């Protein structure tokens, strides 16, 4: 009959509403969901309580996911702003660090020049340990694995670095008057071709070099290459090249202990040990 048919529809609707209650309650546990409790109603009224608003005007469960996504988007935006501020602070810190390192390098350069002008109390073949004791050790004891200075400065990694390893290329332009070389070069380039360190004599690495002399002859620029050998001097941070020709002229280039990309070069007479010309050489290789 029509009455029994309508009752079945109502029962099916109530069953569906009850299933909806179970599913919705599982999805949103902090929501309060109930039916009207009127058996004569053909409608199931779900009331959404909690923080999202109550009564019949509450939000359905699928909108709560949208709210959660919105909150997550908001948190990500805040995190992006915080990260941007941190990046800006890091950039400022890096900039200040670079400036501080530059100032420290300038200070050490001036300090090295003052030390050079004041001179050392040690002999020419000795290393000054530094500090207040003015202790000196022979250059042959430098970087041999055994500390001889009271402060172990002779084994300090900063002092035990060869600044002219194999492959190093330095070049300098000569503007001073030349009273000692026969070619009178206007440019000189030094290329380190090999470095050999003996395990039983580590304090004196053996170095082989090629010295390129650029000079003018008959209105043309010429280049002569002289091959020679020498040593790296840890005690004085310098490359020493023995006489390249019969004229007895050698070359040494001394670093100031701060700037590793330039050295003060001197051409000297190996017989008299006197300098006859000086200039600055700059690194061309990528150290």
UniProtKB/TrEMBL annotation:
<dbReference type="Pfam" id="PF00057">
    <property type="entry name" value="Ldl_recept_a"/>
</dbReference>
<dbReference type="Pfam" id="PF16915">
    <property type="entry name" value="Eryth_link_C"/>
</dbReference>
<dbReference type="InterPro" id="IPR023415">
    <property type="entry name" value="LDLR_class-A_CS"/>
</dbReference>
<keyword id="KW-0732">Signal</keyword>
<protein>
    <submittedName>
        <fullName>Hemoglobin linker chain</fullName>
    </submittedName>
</protein>
<feature type="domain" description="Annelid erythrocruorin linker subunit C-terminal">
    <location>
        <begin position="164"/>
        <end position="283"/>
    </location>
</feature>
<keyword id="KW-0175">Coiled coil</keyword>
<dbReference type="InterPro" id="IPR031639">
    <property type="entry name" value="Eryth_link_C"/>
</dbReference>
<dbReference type="InterPro" id="IPR036055">
    <property type="entry name" value="LDL_receptor-like_sf"/>
</dbReference>
<dbReference type="InterPro" id="IPR002172">
    <property type="entry name" value="LDrepeatLR_classA_rpt"/>
</dbReference>
<keyword id="KW-1015">Disulfide bond</keyword>
<feature type="coiled-coil region">
    <location>
        <begin position="65"/>
        <end position="99"/>
    </location>
</feature>
<feature type="signal peptide">
    <location>
        <begin position="1"/>
        <end position="26"/>
    </location>
</feature>
<dbReference type="InterPro" id="IPR036153">
    <property type="entry name" value="Eryth_link_C_sf"/>
</dbReference>
């Amino acid at each position: 009959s029509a009455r029994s048919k309508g009752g079945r529809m109502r029962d099916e609707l109530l069953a569906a509403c009850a299933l909806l209650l179970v599913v919705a309650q599982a999805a949103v546990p902090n929501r309060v969901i109930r039916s009207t409790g009127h058996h004569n109603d053909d409608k199931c009224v779900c009331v959404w309580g909690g923080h999202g608003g109550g009564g019949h005007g509450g939000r359905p469960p699928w909108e709560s996911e949208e709210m959660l996504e919105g909150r997550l988007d908001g948190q990500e935006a805040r995190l992006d702003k915080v990260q941007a501020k941190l990046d800006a602070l890091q950039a400022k810190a890096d900039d200040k660090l670079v400036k501080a390192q530059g100032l420290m390098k300038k200070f050490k350069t001036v300090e090295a020049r003052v030390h050079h002008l004041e001179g050392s109390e040690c002999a020419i073949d000795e290393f000054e340990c530094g500090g207040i004791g003015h202790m000196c050790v022979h250059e042959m004891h430098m970087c041999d694995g055994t500390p001889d200075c009271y402060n172990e400065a002779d084994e300090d990694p900063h002092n035990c670095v060869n600044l002219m390893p194999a492959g190093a290329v330095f070049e300098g332009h000569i503007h001073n008057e030349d009273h000692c070389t026969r070619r009178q070069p206007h440019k000189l380039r030094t290329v380190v071709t090999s470095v050999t360190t003996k395990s039983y004599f580590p304090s004196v690495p053996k170095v082989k070099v090629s010295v390129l002399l650029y000079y003018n002859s008959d209105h043309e620029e010429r280049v002569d290459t002289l091959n020679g050998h020498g040593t790296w001097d840890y005690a004085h941070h310098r490359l020493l090249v023995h006489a390249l020709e019969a004229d007895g002229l050698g070359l040494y280039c001394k670093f100031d202990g701060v700037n590793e990309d330039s050295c003060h070069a001197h051409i000297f007479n190996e017989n008299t040990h006197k300098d006859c010309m000086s200039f600055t050489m700059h690194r061309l290789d990528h150290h």
